[in-house]
């Protein structure tokens, strides 16, 4: 328990330090950056460059009428791309990433522990939502606000990696946030819920849900 608290504290401190650093960027540095001719500036690739589907609109998942598998899919939510996929746990919350235009996003994925090898293909609906005045121990929240949503259909077998245990992992999908969980509720802590609703070509369905607390920002009154 002490180790979990330490890791959460380190992550919160890192997030706060990043915010403070961005907030204290001097006007002189901004002016200097703008003075550089556009042709000489180095462009940073957007998040869709690293997305397995290029952030394109989802296709339609075609069901396999010959598939006879039944039951619910066993789904685990994870963070990172196909090479760095890690299941979300209280010690590992999704990492907030920043785009070149100031946007923020998560890079999410799923692991299916009971896949259909004869009918590869998944439809994944990612949802990120927030609630205030709803601690983790409260269970259900009375009201949620959607912060991000993305639907992806994965039919390319190259994007469906089979593990040594027989599970299937697909990851790296960029879910762009309309609002940052850390700023959405101001100084109030936000309960964030990440959801992955998955369907396979056998029409089996499964859902994975991960909740964590995003601390509200700190108002500083001193000089910058």
Walk me through the topology.
Layout: H1 2-23, H2 27-35, E1 75-79, E2 86-87, E3 97-98, E4 104-112, E5 122-132, E6 145-154, E7 161-162, E8 168-176, E9 190-200, E10 205-214
Antiparallel strand pairs: 1-2, 1-4, 3-4, 4-8, 5-6, 5-9, 7-8, 9-10
Describe the overall structure.
The chain is of the alpha+beta class. The protein is 14% helix and 32% strand. The chain has 2 helices and 10 strands, in the order ααββββββββββ. The protein has helices at 2-23, 27-35, and strands spanning 75-79, 86-87, 97-98, 104-112, 122-132, 145-154, 161-162, 168-176, 190-200, 205-214. Strands 1, 2, 3, 4, 7 and 8 form a 6-stranded antiparallel β-sheet that branches. It has a 4-stranded antiparallel β-sheet with strand order 6-5-9-10, with no helix packed on it. A hairpin with a 5-residue loop joins strand 7 and strand 8. The longest helix has 22 residues, at 2-23. Residues 1-12 and 15-43 have low confidence and may be disordered.
Low-confidence sequence ranges: 1-12, 15-43
Rg over alpha carbons: 20 Å
Q: Tell me what portion of residues adopts beta-strand conformation.
A: 25-35%
| Number of separate strands | 10
Q: Percent range for helical residues?
A: 10-25%
SS-based class:
alpha+beta
Please, what is the average pLDDT? 83
Shape by Cα distribution: globular
| Number of alpha- plus pi-helical segments | 2
Largest sheet: 6 strands, antiparallel
Order of helices and strands: HHEEEEEEEEEE
């Amino acid at each position: 328990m002490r180790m979990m608290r330490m890791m959460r504290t380190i992550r919160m401190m890192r997030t706060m330090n990043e915010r403070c650093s961005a907030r204290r960027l001097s006007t002189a540095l901004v002016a200097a950056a703008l003075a550089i001719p556009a042709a000489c500036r180095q462009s940073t690739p957007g998040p869709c460059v690293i997305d397995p589907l290029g952030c394109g609109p989802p296709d339609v998942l075609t069901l396999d009428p010959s598939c006879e598998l039944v039951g619910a899919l066993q789904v685990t939510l994870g963070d990172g791309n196909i090479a760095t996929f890690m299941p979300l746990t209280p010690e590992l919350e999704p990492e907030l990433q920043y785009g070149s235009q100031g946007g923020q996003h998560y890079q999410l994925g799923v692991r299916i522990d009971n896949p259909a090898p004869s009918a590869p293909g998944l439809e994944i609906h990612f949802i990120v939502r927030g609630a205030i005045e709803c601690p983790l121990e409260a269970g259900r929240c009375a009201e949620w606000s959607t912060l991000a949503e993305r639907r992806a259909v994965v039919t390319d077998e190259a994007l469906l990696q089979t593990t040594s245990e027989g599970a299937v992992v697909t990851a790296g999908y960029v879910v762009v946030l309309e609002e940052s969980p850390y700023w959405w509720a101001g100084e109030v802590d936000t309960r964030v819920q990440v959801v992955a609703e998955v369907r396979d070509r056998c029409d089996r369905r499964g859902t994975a849900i991960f909740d964590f607390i995003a601390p509200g920002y700190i108002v500083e009154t001193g000089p910058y």
